Structures are given as structure tokens and as C-alpha cells.
């Protein structure tokens, strides 16, 4: 019927429209309950729009399509490198690397993760695998740090010329070493070595100078960003030691030291958020302590600690 007046005056039209509206509300309610159920299973779905989540869930059996939206779930991850061994469409791919969405960086999953099951299941597995991978990197890097020259440790590469350690792990281990070395200098001062803190202050300045010299060489974009971030943190560390010297704060319990954010390495086998970690980290400030969550941060610039 092409005449609008005739259509709108048809018998029973209002009742029909009201009934359709009621059914639509029932559908929306059922859909909302379904999506809420999925969000409870994998809480990061709460950060996705309803349209994106519906698209993701409707392609649950096709990880290649689902993982195109990985940047909405793992915020600093642009994409995953997938490998598919079988030729059949039913064969699920394996995630081998994650690529940073912030800065330039590529990190290998340890071990690689096969995307099996429903979307919320393999996305949860990928999230936990990313946390576990970073935890293992922290354990290996922390053990390797004392055995190498600092610049060699910072620039270490694997057989594929990818950095051995993600940028955030390098910065974390560097800060951990700073805390250990500073407290050692303060303890030695208390034992009678009056030059312990001054000597360490000179050491901090030398480390900073070495990094500045490194920036004058040919570096990749990702490596240069890592070095620049470490310079920012090293400059902050140098200033902390300078404050300790100027204010004669030579005890580990002095407020000038306790008020600083101090990362500490936590032993192996630590369980965090239902994930068994290779190692952990804890940040302390005054009488508070916070667990490091191993959320991937990429390789971006940092202005502050």
C-alpha cells in the first residue's frame, strides 16, 4: 500500500506496533543478559561497545577475525602474530608474538598459545600468557643484569634480532637495581664508610653519561625509545641520591628515602590473580606496598615515574 494515509488508518495497526515494540524490548533484554553473562566470564568485555562485542562473539570460532579487535582488550597490543599449521578452516591458529600498539616492539609468547574454545576462553588464556611471558622476562633479566655490562644488557638481542627484554621489563629491572644499590650504600654508610653514598652518586652520574653517549650512535626507533626512557628514570634516580646527600638522610628508614617509589624483586613461584608467575615485583612507598600487575605497556615515551 503506497498511500501513507491509508496505511496509518489501517485497522489494528497501533496494537500491532505496540506488540512489536514489546517483543523488541524482550529481545533487547535477553541480549543484554547474554552479553552481561559473557562480560562476567571475561571482564575486559565491559570495556567494549555493544556493537564490537556482538561482532566479536558472532565470530567466536574464527580467532583471526576476533583478534582483529585485540587492541580493545589488551590496550597496548596492536596485533598478534598467528601461525596456522593445518590447512582446514577448523584448524585453530597459534599466537606466537604480540606486537606493541604503543611504540615499536615485538615480544615472543613463552610458550606459544593455541586459540581453542570460545572467544572468552582463549582471550583469557592470551591475557594470562602475556602476564606469564612478562614475568619470565623479568626473572631472566634480573638474573642476567649482574653478569653483563649495563649497556650490553640493555641492548641484548635474540637470534632474530629482537630485544631479549621488553622495554617495561628493562626499566623495571633498572629501577630494582637502583633500590638495591642505594640501600647498600646507606647500609655501608651506617657501618662507617662515610663516602659510600657520595661514591654511589658519582656512579649514577657515570651510568647516565654512558646512556647519553649511546644515544649518539645508530639505534633503531625501538631501541632509541628504550634508551631515552632509561635516561629519564636514571636522571630521576640521580636526583634522589642528590637529595639524600644534601639533606644528610643516610638511613634506609629516613623519610627522604621511604617516601620514594621503590620496586623490589619478589621470589619465584609467586601466584598473582590466579596466574602462577615465574617471578613478581612489588612497589613500596612509606608503609604501603603494591603488587606489580604485568599489564603490557608497550614501548612508549615516559615523562614521569
Describe the structure.
- The protein is α+β, with helices and mostly antiparallel strands and 305 residues long.
- The chain contains 10 helices and 8 strands.
- The protein has helices at residues 4-8, 13-41, 50-58, 63-66, 119-144, 150-154, 167-190, 196-214, 221-246, 255-258, and strands at residues 77-83, 94-100, 106-114, 262-266, 271-272, 275-276, 280-285, 288-291.
- The protein has a 3-stranded antiparallel beta sheet with strand order 1-2-3, with helices on one face. Strands 4-7-8 form a 3-stranded antiparallel beta sheet.
- The radius of gyration is 27 Å and the shape is elongated.
- The mean pLDDT is 92.
Helix content: 40-55%
Biggest sheet character:
3 strands, antiparallel
Helices and strands, in order, run as: HHHHEEEHHHHHHEEEEE
Question: Which secondary-structure class do the elements indicate?
Answer: alpha+beta
What shape does the CA trace take?
Answer: elongated
CA-atom Rg in angstroms: 27 Å
Percent strand: 5-15%
- Total number of β-strand segments? 8
